[in-house]
Design brief:
Strand content: 15-25%
Radius of gyration: 23 Å
Shape: globular
Distance between the termini: 35 Å
Largest sheet: 10 strands, antiparallel
Length: 556
C-alpha cells in the first residue's frame, strides 16, 4: 500500500474568512451560451457554413454541476452536453439522461466551458472496401456548438484502442475544413495508478490524448481498427472498445488580462514564440468573434501584492489558492519569481546547511489560467515526498500560440476530469512553448501532490507536461530551460540532485510489474517508467541538457 494523505483545504484560514463568498445570481446570464441545434439541421456537407441564424437565436446556458444537457431536438438520440459531470456512457448509442432547464451563472468568477459528447457509430462502407476488413466507426461531417479541443473516450479504462483516430474540423464562422489530423491513441499510461482511490473510486474511462484544434464549429471523425497481420491466416482484427464517444471541449473564457501584454514575459525569457532550433511555430486559429483569446498572466519581479485580487472568491478558488498562501496573496494569478538569494531566505534551513535549491521561477497559478475549481474533486491528495520528476509532452499538437496556452490547459483539465473521469488535472505542472510555467493539479506548488501522469510511478514524483507534440518537432529552447528552472527549484526543496539517480517502486506498468524497484534518473522521461513514445523522441533527447542546467541552477 502506498502512502497517501488526503486532506480538504477549505476557507478556514484567517485570510479566507475575510473574503465574501459568491452567491447565485438572480438573473445574470451565463458567461458563455451555447446554441442548440434545430431539428431540421442535417450533417454538414464539405462546404457547409456555420449554424443558421435560427439556431443561433436559440441559446442554452450550461447545466448545473452534476447534470448533463441534451438539446431538446431530434439530436437527442446522439448528442449530450455536460458542464457538471459527464453523461453516463452506454454502448448502444442511445440518448443520455439530460437536464433541459438552463441555469443562471453562479458567479462572475466561475469560468464558462462545456463538453459535447457524441456517440460514434459504424460509417458507411466504401464500395472498394476489402471483404472482411474491420468496420470503421466515426461521425460524418456535422455542425456543433463551438469547441477547441477533441478526444475520443470509451467505457472500459482497461481496454486499449488498437487502431487509428483521425479528425477534421471547421474553423468557427467559416467554410474552411482542416486536413485530417491524427489523434494519439496510446494514452492509458497517463493515468492514476492501478488500485488507487482515483482509479478505483471513480468512473474512469479509456481515452485518447486530447488534440487542440482551435475554435471550431464543425467536425468529422473516423476510427479505423488495426488490421490483422496478413501473414497470419488465423489472426483476426481486434475489436474497437465499446461505448466510444467523441468529446468536443469548449474551454470557455479565462480571466481578463492587460491588453498588449505579449506571451513569454517570464523574466529572462524572450517574448518570441519560436519553437526552437530553426523551426517556426505552426499557425493557430484566433478566437471567434465576440470571444477574446485568453493570455497567460505576466510574470514579474514585483511582490505578490501586485497581483490583482478579484472582488469575490468562491470557496473552491480560495481553497486552491490558500495552499500557496506562503508564496503569494490569496487569489493571486502569479507566484512571482525570486532570485536564488531570495529563494534561500524563504526556506527554513538548519544552521550551517549547504542548500542546493535553484531560484524560484515565476508560476502562473490555477487562478491565473482560469481553472474552474468546481470541476475537480474537493480534497487534495499528497504523498510523502518528491523523489523524481517525469517529463511529458501533452500530445495536443503544436497548433497553439502562447496566448492560447491557458485555453489549452482549461481544455485538457476539462477533458481529464469530465471526459476521462480523473479527480483533477493530471500533471503537477505544465510548460508552454514560450517557457511560461503553470501550476497543474491543485494542492500547492511546494507540496508533494499526488498526480495522475505516469502510470505506475505517480507516488513520490511530480509530472511536468510540455504543451505540444515532440516526436518529430524540436522542443523550443525556452520550454527546455523552463523545465530546468522548475526542477532546480522544486526538486531542490526536497534535497534532490537533478543529475543524480533515485530508486522508485513500481505500482505496476507495462514495463515494470508492481513492487519492482527501479533505478532511474531524478529527471526522467515518461518512457523511462512506461513503454511509450512520450515525451516524444526530440524532447527526450533534451533531458540530458535539462539535468545539467538544473544542477547548475542549484549551485552544484
Amino acid at each position: 500500500m502506498r502512502a497517501l494523505l488526503v486532506t480538504s483545504v477549505g476557507v478556514t484560514c484567517a485570510a479566507a474568512l475575510t473574503l465574501p463568498l459568491a452567491t447565485p445570481a438572480a438573473s445574470a446570464p451565463a458567461p458563455h451560451s451555447a446554441s442548440a441545434l434545430p431539428p431540421s439541421m442535417s450533417p454538414a456537407s464539405p462546404g457547409a457554413g456555420p449554424p443558421s441564424a435560427q439556431a443561433e437565436a436559440t441559446t442554452r446556458e450550461a447545466p448545473a454541476p452534476g447534470t448533463s444537457e441534451t438539446p431538446g431536438t431530434s439530436e437527442t438520440s446522439s448528442t449530450s452536453e455536460t458542464s457538471g459531470t459527464s453523461a453516463t456512457f452506454g454502448t448502444s448509442g442511445t440518448s443520455d439522461t439530460s437536464e433541459t432547464e438552463p441555469r443562471q451563472a453562479e458567479s462572475a468568477a466561475e469560468p464558462a466551458g462545456s463538453t459535447q459528447s457524441l456517440p460514434l457509430a459504424p460509417l458507411a462502407a466504401p464500395s472498394n472496401r476489402v471483404a472482411g476488413a474491420p468496420a470503421v466507426q466515426g461521425l460524418p461531417q456535422r455542425d456543433a456548438r463551438p469547441f477547441s479541443l477533441v478526444g475520443v473516450v470509451w467505457d472500459d479504462a482497461e481496454a486499449e484502442l488498437h487502431g487509428t483516430v483521425q479528425v477534421r474540423t471547421r474553423a468557427t464562422g467559416t467554410t474552411r475544413w482542416s486536413e485530417w489530423q491524427d489523434v494519439e491513441t496510446h494514452n492509458a499510461e497517463h493515468a492514476a495508478d492501478l488500485g488507487s482511490a482515483e482509479r478505483e473510486g471513480r468512473t474512469v474511462r479509456g481515452a485518447t490524448a486530447p488534440l487542440w484544434v482551435g475554435d471550431s464549429d464543425g467536425v468529422e471523425v473516423r476510427v479505423r481498427p488495426e488490421a490483422p497481420d496478413p501473414q497470419d491466416r488465423a489472426a483476426t482484427s481486434v475489436p474497437l472498445p465499446e461505448g466510444m464517444r467523441l468529446e468536443l471541449v469548449d474551454p470557455g473564457e479565462g480571466p481578463g488580462e492587460n491588453p498588449g501584454e505579449g506571451p513569454g514575459a517570464n523574466p529572462g525569457e524572450g517574448s518570441a514564440e519560436s519553437t526552437g532550433e530553426g523551426s517556426a511555430p505552426e499557425p493557430a486559429r484566433g478566437a471567434p468573434a465576440g470571444r477574446a483569446a485568453a493570455v497567460p498572466a505576466r510574470f514579474a519581479d514585483a511582490p505578490a501584492a501586485a497581483a490583482t485580487l478579484p472582488e469575490v472568491l468562491t470557496a473552491e478558488i480560495a481553497a486552491a489558492s490558500a495552499v500557496n498562501a506562503e508564496l503569494a496573496e490569496l487569489g493571486a494569478t502569479v507566484i512571482p519569481a525570486l532570485s536564488r538569494a531570495e529563494t534561500l531566505e524563504s526556506v527554513n534551513l538548519a544552521p550551517g546547511a549547504k542548500p542546493y535549491i535553484g531560484p524560484r521561477p515565476g508560476i502562473v497559478t490555477r487562478k491565473g489560467w482560469g481553472a474552474d475549481e468546481k470541476l475537480r474533486e474537493k480534497n487534495f491528495a499528497y504523498t510523502k515526498t518528491v523523489k523524481a520528476a517525469f517529463v511529458h509532452h501533452s500530445a495536443t499538437g503544436n497548433n497553439y500560440t502562447c496566448k492560447q496556452a491557458p485555453s489549452v490547459l482549461r481544455g485538457i483539465y476539462r477533458y481529464h476530469v469530465k471526459s476521462s473521469g480523473w479527480r483533477d488535472f493530471g500533471y503537477n505542472f505544465a510548460v508552454d512553448k514560450c517557457g511560461n510555467i503553470y501550476e497543474g493539479r491543485a494542492g500547492g506548488v511546494t507540496k508533494a501532490v499526488l498526480g495522475a501522469h505516469t502510470l505506475g510511478f505517480n507516488t513520490n514524483t511530480m509530472g511536468i507536461a510540455v504543451l505540444g507534440s515532440y516526436a518529430s518537432t524540436n522542443p523550443p529552447a525556452a520550454a527546455v530551460t523552463a523545465v530546468s528552472k522548475l526542477t532546480a527549484w522544486k526538486l531542490g526543496l526536497f534535497g534532490r540532485n537533478p543529475k543524480g539517480k533515485i530508486t522508485l517502486v513500481s505500482g505496476g506498468s507495462n514495463k515494470y510489474k508492481a513492487g519492482v524497484k527501479v533505478k532511474m534518473n531524478v529527471i526522467s522521461g515518461h518512457r523511462d517508467g512506461f513503454a511509450t513514445e512520450c515525451p516524444g523522441a526530440r524532447l527526450y533527447k533534451k533531458l540530458g541538457k535539462a539535468r545539467t542546467t538544473s544542477a547548475k541552477l542549484q549551485g552544484r
